[in-house]
């Protein structure tokens, strides 16, 4: 009798164990620890790059040209305060009337044939039979198809951009963005660097907007970073050298355009690095010159003020540029580099 009771208890224990195992298998939350969520920004960039690759495969337009158009549109969306779709991967913007055709009575038309009949731009890029301006694939393919209609080589690309934007500044920006993306083969190019090495002796404060008198009354369009003569000056961003040479006010100066359309201005240099020239693509932390005291006169004028770097930032609206205070950005980049030194970045 005791032996039978023991056997029953063993049997019940075995059944309970198998029941627990089955319950765990049916409930993933109990059977395994939850995986860490992916970096949302990295996920967005990967999905955006996938769209560029798909449309590039269809049209033959290099992905970095498509990325450059999209990024230019993104900067214009911010500058012109155009509506941005929640969760959109692509920033290319089409007004309703332009998408469906200006004479189309249905401003929400998604029928490919009727859109074409009314002269609208909208195309079906996703293959679902609809031309939806809120569909990332449709918007990107529509732009690519228009550019492709002018040809496939570099000059054809420039002509297509001009015909679409009717603005030489737009064409230049997109060509610059394309060169940057092509050089680094990546969309993840948002890192910045402080313009001076953090181990150098330097001092700066917010001086944007202060009055200046040389050459006539004007405001100071930047921040002065005082440092010893010859301290290396570094690129603050992934960008392309737009201007390089002498300026009566800024002396030996370099201007770098980044992927946000922002112009980074480095002035009063003592000289330029022999490794850089106009049109070169740069990465954050790359040496472009050295602190000096050039400017306020004809080429070669030196020593009218203590050695320092004048650093300015200018925002592009598509038609004009204006200066804004770089001091908050400098402080942020300085702190970021203290946490993650620029030398630890991979050479992309």
Automatic annotation (TrEMBL):
Residues 219-316 form the M23ase beta-sheet core domain. Keywords: Signal. The keyword Signal applies. Pfam families: Peptidase_M23. Gene3D superfamilies: Glucose Permease (Domain IIA) (2.70.70.10). InterPro entries: Cell_wall_metabolism_enzyme (IPR050570), Dup_hybrid_motif (IPR011055), Lysozyme-like_dom_sf (IPR023346), M23ase_b-sheet_dom (IPR016047). Residues 1-31 form the signal peptide. GO terms for molecular function: metalloendopeptidase activity. This is Peptidase M23.
């Amino acid at each position: 009798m005791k032996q039978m009771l023991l056997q029953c208890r063993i049997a019940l224990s075995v059944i309970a164990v198998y029941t627990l195992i089955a319950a765990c298998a049916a409930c993933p939350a109990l059977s395994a620890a939850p995986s860490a969520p992916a970096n949302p920004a990295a996920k967005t960039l990967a999905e955006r790059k996938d769209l560029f690759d798909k449309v590039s495969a269809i049209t033959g337009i290099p992905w970095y040209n498509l990325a450059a158009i999209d990024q230019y549109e993104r900067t214009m969306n911010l500058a012109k305060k155009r509506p941005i779709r929640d969760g959109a991967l692509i920033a290319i913007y089409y007004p309703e009337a332009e998408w469906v055709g200006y004479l189309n009575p249905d401003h929400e038309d998604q029928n490919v044939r009727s859109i074409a009949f009314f002269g609208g731009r909208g195309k079906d890029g996703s293959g679902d039979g609809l031309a939806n301006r809120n569909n990332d694939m449709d918007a990107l393919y529509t732009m690519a198809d228009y550019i492709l209609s002018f040809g496939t080589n570099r000059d054809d690309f420039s002509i297509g951009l001009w015909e679409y934007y009717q603005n030489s500044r737009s064409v230049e920006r997109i060509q610059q963005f394309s060169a940057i993306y092509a050089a680094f083969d990546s969309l993840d190019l948002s890192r910045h660097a402080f313009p001076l090495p953090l181990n150098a002796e330097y001092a700066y404060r917010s001086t944007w907007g202060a009055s200046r008198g040389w050459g006539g009354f004007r405001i100071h369009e930047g921040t002065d970073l005082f440092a010893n003569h010859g301290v290396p000056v570094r690129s603050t961003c992934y960008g392309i050298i737009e201007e390089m040479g002498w300026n009566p006010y800024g002396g030996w100066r370099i201007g770098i355009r980044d992927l946000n359309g922002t112009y980074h201005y480095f002035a009063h240099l003592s000289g330029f690095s022999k490794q850089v020239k106009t049109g070169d693509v740069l990465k954050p932390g790359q040496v472009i010159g050295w602190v000096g005291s050039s400017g306020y006169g004809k080429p070669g004028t030196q020593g009218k003020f203590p050695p320092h770097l004048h650093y300015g930032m200018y925002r592009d609206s598509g038609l004009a540029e204006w200066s804004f205070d770089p001091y908050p950005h400098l402080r942020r980049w300085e702190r970021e580099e203290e946490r993650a030194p620029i030398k630890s970045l991979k050479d992309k």
